[in-house]
Amino acid sequence: MPAEHDVVIVGGGLAGLAAARRLHRAGVSWRLLEAGDRLGGRVATDPVDGYLIDRGFQVLNTAYPRLGTLLDLATLDLGWFTPGVLVRRGAAVARLVNPLREPAGAAGTALAGVGSLRDRLRFAALATGCATLPPGRLLDAPETTAEAALRRAGLSDAIIEELLRPFLSGVLVDRALETSSHVLAMVLRSFARGRVGVPAQGMGALPRAIAAPLPADLVELRTPVTGVDPHRVRTRSGELRCRAVLVAVDPPTAGTLLPTLGRVRMHAYTTYYHATDTPPLDEPILLVDGDRRELVANTVVLSHAAPTYAPAGRHLVATSVVGPSALPEPVVRAELARLYGRPTADWEHLTTVDVPAALPAAPPLQGRLRKPVALGGGLFVAGDHRDSPSIQGALASGWRAAGAVLAELRAPG
């Protein structure tokens, strides 16, 4: 029986959408099957009582290279965060900013009481190296854990425990900082080179914008895939024959459909959303806990970055915890009162978003950050578990997997 399509893409998250865009541009026939009722996978936004609630606190970094291939960032109407961080230490709050992005704050950052001046200079040197060296050089460096890389750079316990661990734990979803130093280098590179923001209509606007140029009749929602073989995809309503299958589902589901991949360990992330009339800060800047209590990873007034996240006259506060939602909301609310130095008793708890499989673990010594996407026999795989655990990793892997598909389809014989 002849193939019905050149390629069937399983999964409509960022990786699957990036793959579809490249295949569509190349003029091959394709079809995308998504089990859910919308595209985007782990990147989604839901309206709740007039607020925009993302599926866990997420941000977009303009330094992600693959974004420019797929959309015009101006169409997202991004609201920006202050390029820096606040650190609560006892009764004081230190403000540290990226001096390249906010020169006026450079003096205050140099004098901030988090770590020593030598620490801050050494960290600046580390971040500058990540920003300026070619990515290939960074990925060729000896690989270790993120924590070991920070200590190798000569940073003290004070700055690691009071600033870098709480900040990076929210980025990597890894409080132990066991993530690969190569991932750390890419993270520092993106923060040093890019701006960080959120779309006016929530993070769910990102997959919608990427999917916009794709013909709607080639995308099937609410179509779970029950199995894949080379050149065949099975669903509850039948099967589709094709020349290549590209599996771009979440990592746990990918392991089920493609058992040879093995189990992908996932990190959990929980975000508590609160509403208030009076914001606890007057700027959109991340606040982290430098007191080593290890309860809250970070908190931010989202509506200061994008006022559309909350109704007029109201503000939305997002607070994230690394791991599943083990903390009762009153405990989080008490922590927020301590961190912000403001009463929180009258705050409204809108919802708690628990994402058990937020990001794949990326430990060191795996051979290489970018894993193979061509599995042989017409089977391909994409997702942030094949690249860096990030939005950029998902997009890059999807684009790369589509390139591998095209190479096989065009190969002679």
UniProtKB/TrEMBL annotation:
Top-level taxon in the UniProt lineage: Bacteria
Residues in Amine oxidase domain copies: 14-406
InterPro entries given in the database record: Amino_oxidase, FAD/NAD-bd_sf
MF GO annotations: oxidoreductase activity
Record protein name field: Protoporphyrinogen oxidase
UniProt organism field: Micromonospora carbonacea
